[in-house]
Design brief:
Layout lengths: L5 H6 L3 H34 L5 H54 L2 E5 L5 E5 L10 H36 L14 H13 L7 H14 L3 H11 L2 H16 L7 H21 L11 H10 L16 H9 L6 H17 L31 H11 L1 H9 L23 H6 L24 H15 L15 H16 L24 H10 L1 H8 L20 H11 L3 H24 L8 H29 L5 H8 L3 H10 L11 H22 L3 E2 L5 E2 L1 H20 L6 H28 L4
Antiparallel strand pairs: 1-2, 3-4
Helix pairs in contact: 2-3, 3-4, 4-6, 5-6, 5-7, 6-9, 7-9, 8-9, 8-11, 10-11, 10-12, 11-13, 12-13, 12-14, 13-14, 13-16, 14-16, 16-18, 17-20, 18-21, 19-22, 20-22, 21-22, 21-23, 21-24, 21-25, 21-26, 22-26, 22-27, 23-25, 24-25, 25-26, 26-27
Length: about 775
């Protein structure tokens, strides 16, 4: 078969295929009418006829067979129509994506060159100064070529699968209709995926790539995913297939297993996303609800992956956990599993460690090929990671009423049965036992971070529940804060504000009172939660009540104890990522507050200068707390260097965008195109955050006290920048007024910043 090329796909017209779809649509309609006539006419009359003798034994079966052939012909025509229709839609979609990629590349000065073998390479427009392309351009070109190559492969697969399906529909028998029937191309693709899955670890590399491509392009399609999982046979067969493939991909070290490991990582992601799509009851096509019940039942049973006495027999939850790490799962499916696993852990924290291989030199071997967050023997870490991607499920898990489960995963029928604890209390307690999910021996290099896997996944789950978005989501669209989310955030701030030692990180040895807390790795997630609720945090700085003065999206989070807020921010801000996230959101929110004051219509008799000063003050306090927290991390606890904070600041631009998009509802209507304003403001604020971080340097005086003058100046400058941005969008304010406003905010910003540093320092244990 000739290889499909870039030029083929880019330039082909699908008009003939479209015409074929129309022809077969018409043919199917005509044949359906003939089939109906044959069934209600010829066959019905023959059945009613009271024939006797030899004629009755021959004619009636012949008439019935002929009528059935009409029905089979109509079914075959429908299948051909369905296959061609979906192939046409999918190929046009791929071609559209291809042209968009080419167009986006041209805007960056990148040209796509056809290699003629199904792949492309990228060339770069000549620079005005004849300089060579930058490293960033080269990376962009390589990424573009990879994306286009995948689109070409996808188009070729669609063509090949459609051809396979048409052959099966035809069947090769010239005297009979009635062979394979298909409702859609998704069904064809799922059938092929199941065929490959049946090979298990015997899949060749080429077949493995084909399987992953099918899954990658279709995993989010509920029709495909449901057909695929049903085709595997059931929950146990699905676990057995994934378990075998995970071990096949993670066994062995070195170059010989490098490609297989990469393929298994793709499989893990694809199967997880597909399982999430297939178990969503909101979709028209989905797996029966009994699959969730069966997974819980299998969770505590050992699954025989290979026959024989020496075959691996992992617990069902260990295998299922590998898949659950990817995908946004429906709460009805995931929350009961997470509850059951947590309850099993409460009874015996080391339960699932009993069948972990011992003495192996291969650290990757297990059910989590991704290599992120453990080898996959502890299902608790896996379900927490799943909750981190599933906001609805995590919110219900942490804030809903617990259900008590029995050992076999069934609901305890005793209505009076109670757990005696909530999941947030259980997972956040100081003496919670996190199993060592690694094959590394204690004391070796591979065991260094083993007790951080669980807390890190816990942070992801907390973030998902509090913010309403997956912890690693790149979306900047605002998410409404529900009562449950807001109250959960209040609980976290109060809990860690009261118990800051749980998230403290110290690298100065084993000083008893400064020992690192068991949950310090989740501070980056707490920083994201803080950014999400920046309006509520700013309001709490001076004890303001919830009101429209501090706009938020949904229900406000009310922090009753200011000392808890201070200690919470002071500990969380010591993490470079959290520091950068909070600083980005703080400056963005302050910009919105200033813009609102400068441009709003008001009946207030308070001067504009005073109202602007009031607007920048809360953010300046938070900036001061962040400076003190950064100094603690760098100078007291030795957990990070200044460059770590500076580099993190440059990577958190999405939080500025998120905060600005939250504020689009109160950006004045005079702005013609909100999207353009969002992009401009976000980029401008991100640059300002980077500059502020670089100047956030703490020096020490002779008496040991800290000098924050540079950081203070940077905060003042950021406030002036906020005024500049607001005034630039207000035609009624001239340059002199803007400069007067900038001068007026200096003292207030400086004083509030100093309040933040001293406020934090007054509760500092160092």
């Amino acid at each position: 078969m000739a290889t499909l090329t870039f030029s083929d796909l880019y330039g082909v017209s699908f008009s003939n295929l479209s015409a074929a779809v129309s022809d077969w649509e018409s043919m199917a309609t005509k044949l359906e009418k003939l089939a109906d006539d044959a069934r209600t006419g010829m066959a019905a009359k023959a059945d009613k006829a009271e024939w006797r003798g030899e004629n009755a034994g021959v004619t009636k079966p012949f008439v019935r067979k002929t009528a059935k052939e009409f029905e089979d012909a109509a079914a075959q025509a429908r299948s051909i129509r369905n296959i061609l229709k979906d192939a046409h839609a999918d190929l046009r979609s791929v071609q559209s994506d291809l042209k968009k990629e080419v167009g986006d590349g041209r805007k960056q000065g990148i040209r796509v060159v056809d290699n003629g073998d199904g792949t492309v390479r990228c060339a770069f427009d000549r620079q005005p100064d004849n300089s060579a392309p930058s490293e960033e351009q080269r990376r962009a070109g390589a990424d573009l070529a990879t994306r286009i190559d995948r689109l070409i492969v996808r188009a070729e697969e669609i063509d090949d699968l459609a051809a396979r399906a048409l052959k099966k529909v035809h069947g090769g028998d010239t005297h009979n209709f009635g062979h394979a029937t298909y409702r859609s191309l998704d069904e064809v693709e799922a059938e092929r995926a199941v065929e490959l899955a049946k090979l298990g670890p015997d899949m060749s590399t080429a077949q493995y790539r084909e399987f992953n491509n099918l899954m990658a392009f279709n995993a989010r399609d509920p029709e495909f995913s449901t057909s695929f999982y049903m085709g595997l046979g059931g929950p146990e067969e699905a676990l057995r297939f994934y378990g075998r493939m995970a071990l096949d991909g993670t066994q062995g070290d070195g170059e010989e297993n490098k490609e297989r490991l990469a393929l298994s990582r793709e499989l893990q992601r694809n199967m997880g996303i597909a399982l999430a799509a297939a178990t969503d009851p909101d979709d028209r096509t989905h797996l029966p609800s009994g699959w969730g019940d069966e997974f819980r039942k299998l969770g505590t049973q050992q699954i025989e992956l290979e026959p024989g006495a020496f075959g691996r027999q992992p617990y069902g939850y260990q295998v299922l956990g590998g898949m659950l790490r990817y995908g946004n799962y429906d709460a009805d499916f995931l929350t009961p599993i997470a509850e059951h696993v947590t309850q099993l852990h409460h009874e015996n924290p080391m339960r699932f460690m009993s069948n972990k291989p011992v003495g192996m030199g291969d650290m990757d071997f297990g059910y989590n090929p991704s290599g992120k967050g453990g080898a996959g023997y502890d299902p608790l870490t896996s379900v927490l990671e799943a909750l981190g991607h599933s906001p609805e499920a995590s919110e219900r898990f942490f804030t809903g009423e617990p259900t008590v489960y029995r050992e076999d995963g069934t609901v305890n029928p005793d209505k009076k049965a109670e757990l005696g604890y909530t999941y947030k209390e259980e997972l956040l307690k100081k003496d919670f036992v996190w199993p060592p999910d690694t094959l590394a021996m204690p004391g070796t290099e591979g065991s260094k971070d083993v007790f951080e896997h669980g807390p890190d996944a816990l942070g992801h789950a907390l973030e998902s529940a509090a913010t309403g978005r997956a912890y690693d989501s790149e979306s900047t669209e605002p998410v409404e804060h529900t009562v449950e989310r807001a109250e959960f955030t209040e609980y976290l701030v109060s809990y860690f504000g009261e118990n800051p030692d749980l998230i403290r990180h110290n690298e100065n040895g084993e000083a008893k009172d400064l020992k690192s807390g068991p949950l310090h790795v989740l501070r980056d997630s707490l920083g994201n939660i803080t950014a999400e609720y920046m309006g509520d945090f700013q309001r709490s700085m001076y004890g303001d009540d919830p009101s429209d003065h501090f706009p938020i999206n949904g229900v406000p989070a009310v922090f009753e104890d200011s000392s808890h807020v201070m200690r919470f921010l002071g500990e969380v801000g010591q993490d470079p990522d959290a520091y950068a996230t909070i600083t980005s959101a703080q400056q963005a929110y302050t910009t919105l507050m200033v813009d609102r004051v400068v441009n709003e219509e008001t009946q207030s008799t308070v001067s504009l200068e005073q109202r602007v000063s009031n607007a920048v003050a809360p953010g300046a306090v938070i900036a001061g707390i962040m400076s003190e927290a950064r100094a603690d991390a760098v100078h007291d606890y030795n957990t990070a260097a200044a460059k770590d904070f500076n580099e993190a600041a440059a990577e958190k631009g999405k939080w500025a965008t998120r905060t600005i998009e939250l504020g689009t509802s109160f950006i004045p209507q005079r702005v013609p195109v909100v999207g353009e304003v969002v992009n401009w403001l976000a980029e401008d604020i991100t640059n300002s955050v980077v500059k502020s971080a670089e100047k956030d340097v703490t020096e020490f005086k002779g008496d040991g006290s800290r000098d924050y003058s540079q950081a203070r100046d940077a905060t003042v400058e950021a406030s002036k920048e906020a005024i500049r941005r607001a005034c630039s969008m207000s035609p009624g304010i001239n340059l002199q007024t803007m400069e007067d406003l900038q001068r007026s905010v200096g003292p207030q910003t400086g004083n509030s910043y100093s309040e933040g540093t001293s406020w934090r320092r007054s509760g500092d244990v160092s």
